[in-house]
């Protein structure tokens, strides 16, 4: 049975939505959650029926969102440190946290370790697309200062991920730039362009619009750019839905139309852009599985992040990454 170490104390709203998400996942999938945190508090939130379906590892420290990520290495009794150690010691197959993302990435990288040929891991996320599948973007925050080799590795990891996890044959990989021509870009992207040509699915430079129009399956960028892109996109989605609600309230025909479309159009649209549908971002390049969830994750997001961890663990994506990079060495 797949074992998932879960930082029960991380997240903006404490352990309640995390425990609720764990329970919802148990109702649909067979796995063993190992909850790390305050045992008494965890038990107070866990329904009686599920007590014998989980394991609990006691932890008395929680890394706050305001703490420096590097402090996590010294905070050995923290919930995220202990959760990561379970994977390092092969007592769990994956780790999941909605807590301090920097601490989670630092500990996963340094304690679990990196795959062969990986210089730095990347945080990957799926973005809504007009195409058949969503678009995987990486890095979205793990490595703010990248070199060309990092971007090449991101491309290889993205290609392997969408092939093995999303089932996309011959995925198309693009390099985010300020124009589609090979001559466009800054010094970093121009150098990375030459390296990425070694990837089977590399299609060249892509612009921001290509993330959403279905032209590519994977978009590669540095973590600084990717994080701004991610948060800007989240802001745009929130703004669009808010504006729609405002305009609908002002018009009776719009209200009638909205009621008619509510079940099909709006529900499907919300599902396409809802970050909770995906649950979290995998940290690609570590020698295991680490899922980083949003601090404001609700129970639905945690449930889906657990499903993602199960799918990742069942796949051979890490082996594919290693083989792909080793072949091009």
Return Rg in Å. 20 Å
How many H/I helices? 10
What gross morphology would you assign?
Answer: globular
Number of E-state strands: 11
Structural class: alpha/beta
Superfamily at the CATH H level of the domain at 1-118 and 285-315? Isopropylmalate Dehydrogenase
Q: What is the level-2 CATH architecture name of the domain at 1-118 and 285-315?
A: 3-Layer(aba) Sandwich
Fraction of helical residues: 40-55%
Question: β content, as a range?
Answer: 5-15%
Q: Could you tell me the CATH topology label of the domain at 1-118 and 285-315.
A: Isopropylmalate Dehydrogenase
Model regions low in confidence, pLDDT < 50 over at least 5 residues: none
Q: In sequence order, what are the helices and strands, one letter per element?
A: EHEHEHEHEEHEHEEHHEEHH
Could you tell me how far the N terminus lies from the C terminus, measured between alpha carbons in angstroms?
A: 36 Å
Strand order of the largest sheet: 3-2-1-4-11-10-5-6-9-7-8
CATH class of the domain at 1-118 and 285-315: Alpha Beta
The overall average pLDDT, rounded, is 86
- Biggest beta sheet attributes: 11 strands, mixed
Description:
The protein is α/β, with parallel strands linked by helices. The protein has a domain at 1-118 and 285-315: Isopropylmalate Dehydrogenase (3-Layer(aba) Sandwich), CATH 3.40.718.10. Helices cover 44% and strands 15% of the residues. It is built from ten helices and eleven strands. The protein has an eleven-stranded mixed beta sheet with strand order 3-2-1-4-11-10-5-6-9-7-8, sandwiched between helices. α5 (148-164) packs across α10 and α7 (223-249) packs antiparallel against α8 (252-273). The two termini are 36 Å apart. The model has no long low-confidence stretch (mean pLDDT 86).
């Amino acid at each position: 049975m797949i074992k998932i170490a879960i930082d029960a104390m991380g997240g903006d709203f404490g352990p309640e939505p995390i425990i609720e998400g764990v329970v919802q996942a148990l109702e649909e999938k067979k796995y063993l959650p190992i909850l790390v945190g305050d045992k008494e508090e965890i038990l107070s939130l866990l329904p009686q029926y599920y007590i014998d379906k989980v394991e609990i590892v006691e932890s008395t420290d929680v890394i706050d969102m305001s703490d420096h990520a590097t402090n996590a290495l010294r905070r050995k009794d923290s919930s995220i440190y202990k959760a990561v150690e379970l994977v390092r010691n092969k007592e769990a197959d994956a780790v999941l946290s909605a807590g301090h993302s920097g601490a989670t990435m630092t500990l996963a990288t340094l304690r679990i370790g990196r795959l062969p040929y990986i210089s730095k891991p990347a945080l990957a996320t799926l973005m809504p697309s007009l195409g058949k599948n969503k678009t995987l973007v990486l890095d979205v925050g793990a490595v703010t200062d990248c070199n060309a080799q990092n971007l090449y590795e991101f491309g290889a990891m993205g290609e392997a991920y969408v092939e093995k996890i999303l089932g996309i044959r011959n995925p198309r990989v693009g390099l985010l730039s300020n124009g589609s021509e090979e001559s466009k870009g800054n010094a970093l992207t121009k150098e990375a362009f030459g390296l990425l040509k070694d990837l089977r699915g590399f299609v060249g430079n892509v612009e921001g619009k290509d993330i959403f129009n279905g032209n590519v399956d994977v978009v590669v960028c540095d973590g600084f750019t990717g994080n701004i892109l991610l948060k800007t996109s989240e802001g745009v989605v929130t703004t669009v839905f808010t504006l729609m609600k405002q305009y609908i309230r002002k018009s009776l025909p719009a209200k009638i139309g909205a009621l008619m479309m509510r079940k099909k159009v709006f529900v499907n649209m919300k599902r396409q852009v809802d970050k909770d549908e995906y649950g979290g971002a995998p940290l690609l390049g570590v020698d295991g599985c680490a899922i980083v969830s949003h601090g404001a994750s609700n129970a639905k997001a945690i449930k889906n992040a657990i499903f993602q961890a199960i799918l990742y663990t069942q796949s051979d994506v890490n082996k594919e990454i290693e083989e792909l990079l080793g072949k091009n060495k």
